[in-house]
Amino acid sequence: MLTHLDSQGHAHMVDVTDKADTTREAVAEALVRMRPETLRLIEEGGHPKGDVFAVARVAGIMAAKKTHELIPLCHPLLLTGIKVELEAEGEDRVRITARCKLAGQTGVEMEALTAASVAALTLYDMCKAVDRGMLIEQIRLLEKQGGKSGHYRADA
């Protein structure tokens, strides 16, 4: 059931006033494929724009904090923890993992997904001059804990 619809079928922000605060955490990921020479340039620190991973990490963190401004009907949340990791895999891809946490009345899935997505887009933006063919894929929720709906873990 879609909970963002009212009794008339109109979109609205869900009222979480009566929900209890619980610890909630979500983990999302994105995968960015690129040419091997692009990844080598990043890893060797030779990219003309500087530390690509550091900039993408900060962009992901900033995006998580502003998710409610980007995604309609999302609640503004006081996140207590945001972690964005970028890790080279093989010779041609980077896995981005975003973890968001809070003690509150609603979940943080959208914040984690937004963080992973924006970090991937930032990686693309910083490297597009040398590799326009990069592919952003597999943006997905890996795990969610806390709240009324309980624990979720994606299949491998």
UniProtKB/TrEMBL annotation:
Keywords on record: Lyase, Molybdenum cofactor biosynthesis
Residue ranges occupied by any Molybdopterin cofactor biosynthesis C (MoaC) domain in the UniProt entry: 13-147
Positions of the catalytic residues: 125
Matching HAMAP family: MoaC_B
Role this protein plays: Catalyzes the conversion of (8S)-3',8-cyclo-7,8-dihydroguanosine 5'-triphosphate to cyclic pyranopterin monophosphate (cPMP).
Assembly and oligomerization: Homohexamer; trimer of dimers.
Gene3D superfamilies linked to this entry: Molybdopterin cofactor biosynthesis C (MoaC) domain
Record-linked InterPro entries: MoaC, MoaC_bact/euk, MoaC_sf, MoCo_biosynth_MoaA/MoaC, Mopterin_CF_biosynth-C_dom
Organismal lineage: Bacteria, Pseudomonadati, Pseudomonadota, Gammaproteobacteria, Pseudomonadales
Species assigned in the record: Azotobacter bryophylli
Family membership: Belongs to the MoaC family.
Catalytic activity: (8S)-3',8-cyclo-7,8-dihydroguanosine 5'-triphosphate = cyclic pyranopterin phosphate + diphosphate
One Gene Ontology term of the molecular function aspect: cyclic pyranopterin monophosphate synthase activity
EC number: 4.6.1.17
Residues engaged in binding substrate: 73-75, 110-111
NCBIfam families: moaC, PRK09364.1
This protein's pathway: Cofactor biosynthesis; molybdopterin biosynthesis
Protein name as annotated: Cyclic pyranopterin monophosphate synthase
Domain of life: Bacteria
Top-level EC class as recorded in UniProt: lyase
Keyword Iron-sulfur: no
